């Protein structure tokens, strides 16, 4: 009879999976539909980081991940890898967005007005144990009939600056973006690669780096939000590339244009530089206002880098904000490293030996 | 949910195979690819897994190793995913496998020309310890500017009296590219040189594929007066099998507190033990 070494990896793994499943079994069923309606903000964040717009699948992922953001994003990204990419949308213009919320921190009286919409910004963060949240009791519908503007044709705040000559519009660039899910980023990065990475970035990571950027590292100044808008953006595809585009649906987006006061660099007028406005841009799936604002700050800092500042370094920012990559690599430290550690031991012992000789 | 054959969609697999061909054509050069997210975590072998999934066909026989063992938790996990999505047969015997995915080890049994060894790579850039920027390391590779890598080894000698790089010891491939051989022990570096089989290396998180084609010259960086050294197991033998000259795990006996050694490549040890007349 031959020798049989101690085995059991398979059994141990099966037992671990079983324990995990048992641990997450509960007395009450949690309906995915309930997650979808009650965990809306979590779903928005998960869709944004997973770059897959599907509320039902995001709700499924959130439930399966027991509310763990990173895990839910991971599930959805893995699912995304199984899907063939059939079409790119045609260029969409956010001027066509059906706006549900829109605020400007720069001008009081913007054409079309400030539209507060639904936001937790002005609620007092007091824990509320009344059953309002459970009962599903609706408050009275807000009356929006008095509003005089078309919500899918609102002007942009930046237009005003442009008319004044305080903002120089960049030439439009409607080239097909470099798709970072089909080609890896190479540095120096293109703006489309930067915007994609940032919008897929982990909400917390993007927020932290954006915060660092305006707090003292890099741009180190207070940007002004020209406009935050949240709304439904129509998406079209042109499958036969004949200009005959089809409407495929709406996606909820958050868009931010931040005004960054800056030196007018190139054309110095005699007697000194001019101050001008530049723009930082943020766009995310779903309502993710803080992330979109932080994204706009980082978009600006990466487009106008300052030497030696980490938050202006595209490699530093883009390679580290991804949730699936950072959590994956950090968690892999749990895996066995017996072979490499043996190799380290060998070298450490060697240097000890060299010393005592 | 229904899954694709080998998990990924066909276009993704095709793209990975194309990048793999490029990697084979330029030995040791890191080819960027659009790494897909898989149902196992980034950093847990997704680079190797994408290579395996894009290559595995119905006629393949699969072996998965982690830390020298087929039963190590991560090996089990990866093998299960590949089998669940392809139904290919598996083996623990190196010589029976056509496709071998491994983490941290090159098997003790030499590869045959019909075999492909896929290594999982956490950190593909050999110059990363001397240069954090990808943009700059790419330039350094283009210029064959490897003085940073050499200087690092030289500084170790100055500081510690010997080269202290442990696993993932840098190699020069085909006289052109300095390459990270993935964290295999130095012990396995000589096996890469003039190998009969194809060796592919995949880094999922860092989005790179690179390769050592069969019969390629691979030499570990070293100096004439400080030659390359592998981990020393010269004066020990495997407690289970009596094998010598293999990579060993160092273990401690629960009862006596004594240190003892066991062959790290578990399937190789089993094969040796099960050979007729070898029962100890």
UniProtKB/TrEMBL annotation, chain A:
Q: Which InterPro entries match?
A: PhnI
Record's Pfam families? PhnI (PF05861)
Q: Name one GO molecular function term.
A: lyase activity
Q: Which UniProt keywords apply?
A: Lyase
Reading the lineage from the top rank, the first entry is: Bacteria
- The entry's protein name is Carbon-phosphorus lyase complex subunit PhnI
Native organism: Salinicoccus bachuensis
From TrEMBL, chain B:
- Give the InterPro entries listed for this entry: PhnJ
What protein is this chain from? Alpha-D-ribose 1-methylphosphonate 5-phosphate C-P-lyase PhnJ
Q: Which species is this UniProt entry from? A: Salinicoccus bachuensis
């Amino acid at each position: 009879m031959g020798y049989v070494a101690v085995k059991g990896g398979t059994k141990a793994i099966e037992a671990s999976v079983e324990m995990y499943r048992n641990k997450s079994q509960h007395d009450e069923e949690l309906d995915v539909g309930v997650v979808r309606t009650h965990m809306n903000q979590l779903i928005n964040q998960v869709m944004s980081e997973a770059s897959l717009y599907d509320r039902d699948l995001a709700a499924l992922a959130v439930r399966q991940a027991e509310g763990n953001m990173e895990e839910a994003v991971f599930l959805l990204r893995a699912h995304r890898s199984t899907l063939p990419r059939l079409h790119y949308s045609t260029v969409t213009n956010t001027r066509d967005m059906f706006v549900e919320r829109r605020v400007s921190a720069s001008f009081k009286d913007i054409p079309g007005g400030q539209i507060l919409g639904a936001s937790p910004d002005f609620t007092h963060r007091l824990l509320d144990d009344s059953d309002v949240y459970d009962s599903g009791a609706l408050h009275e519908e807000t009356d929006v009939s008095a509003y005089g503007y078309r919500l899918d044709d609102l002007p942009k705040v930046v237009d005003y600056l442009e008319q004044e000559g305080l903002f120089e519009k960049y030439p439009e660039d409607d080239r097909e973006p470099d798709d970072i899910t089909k080609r890896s980023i190479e540095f120096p990065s293109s703006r489309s690669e930067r915007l994609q990475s940032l919008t897929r970035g982990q909400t917390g990571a993007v927020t932290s780096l954006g915060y660092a950027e305006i707090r003292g590292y890099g741009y180190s100044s207070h940007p002004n939000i020209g406009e935050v808008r949240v709304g439904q953006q129509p998406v079209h595809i042109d499958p036969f590339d004949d200009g005959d585009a089809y409407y495929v649906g709406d996606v909820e987006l958050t868009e931010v244009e931040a005004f960054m006061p800056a030196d007018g660099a190139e054309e110095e007028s005699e007697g000194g530089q001019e101050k001008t406005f530049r723009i930082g841009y943020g766009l995310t799936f779903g309502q993710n206002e803080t992330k979109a604002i932080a994204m706009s700050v980082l978009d600006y800092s990466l487009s106008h880098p300052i030497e030696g500042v980490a938050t202006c370094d595209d490699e530093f920012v883009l390679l580290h904000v991804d949730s699936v990559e950072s959590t994956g690599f950090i968690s892999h430290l749990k895996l066995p490293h017996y072979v490499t550690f043996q190799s380290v031991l060998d070298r450490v012992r060697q240097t000890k030996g060299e010393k005592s000789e | 949910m229904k899954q694709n054959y080998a998990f990924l969609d066909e276009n993704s697999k095709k793209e990975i195979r194309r990048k793999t061909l490029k990697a084979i054509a330029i030995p040791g050069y890191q080819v960027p690819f659009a790494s897909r997210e898989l149902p196992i975590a980034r950093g847990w072998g997704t680079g190797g897994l994408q290579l395996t999934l894009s290559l595995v066909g119905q006629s393949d026989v699969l072996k998965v190793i982690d830390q020298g063992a087929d039963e190590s938790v991560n090996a089990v996990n990866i093998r299960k995913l590949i089998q669940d999505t392809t139904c290919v047969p598996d083996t623990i015997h190196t010589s029976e496998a056509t496709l071998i995915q491994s983490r941290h080890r090159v098997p003790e049994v030499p590869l045959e020309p019909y075999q492909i060894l896929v290594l999982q790579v956490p950190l593909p850039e050999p110059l990363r310890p001397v240069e954090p920027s990808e943009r700059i390391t790419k330039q350094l590779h283009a210029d064959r500017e490897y003085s940073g890598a050499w200087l690092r080894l030289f500084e170790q000698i100055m500081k510690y009296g010997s080269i202290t790089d442990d696993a993932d010891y840098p190699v020069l491939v085909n006289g052109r590219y300095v390459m990270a051989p993935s964290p295999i022990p130095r012990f396995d570096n000589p096996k890469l040189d003039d190998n009969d089989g194809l060796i592919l290396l995949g880094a999922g998180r860092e989005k790179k594929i690179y390769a050592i084609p069969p019969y390629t010259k691979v030499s570990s960086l070293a100096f004439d007066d400080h030659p390359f050294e592998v981990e020393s197991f010269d004066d020990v033998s495997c407690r289970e099998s009596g094998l010598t000259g293999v990579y060993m795990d160092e273990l401690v006996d629960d009862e006596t507190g004594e240190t003892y050694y066991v062959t790290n490549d578990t399937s190789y040890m089993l094969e040796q033990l099960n050979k007729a007349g070898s029962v100890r």
